[in-house]
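If you are new to this repository, start here. Below is one unmodified record pulled from the training split, so you can see the exact layout before writing a loader.
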Amino acid sequence: MLLYIVTAYLVVMTLVGFILCAVDKSYAKRKGHRRIRERTLFLTAALGGSVGVWAGMYCFRHKTKHMSFVIGIPAILAAQIGIIILLVYFGII
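And here is the target side for that same chain:
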């Protein structure tokens, strides 16, 4: 049961991260429009949306010139994969 909850949560956060990248890219194209903060994108990635943010970066060519994103988002994803592996190994999920 916990595995289904964790999976559903990660799917929702992935969609949120992807949508945030799409929205921010559309805002970036419009001059004078309020943007989504970079820390919001990083927080979304850290809370489980790293796959969505990473996919959004390359799907929309958004933030791909920012080294903090090019290195940071995959690093967050790698850490999350490591945590999931440990949780599975120890039988928590």
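Two things worth knowing about this chain: The first helix runs from residue 2 to 29. The mean pLDDT is 93.
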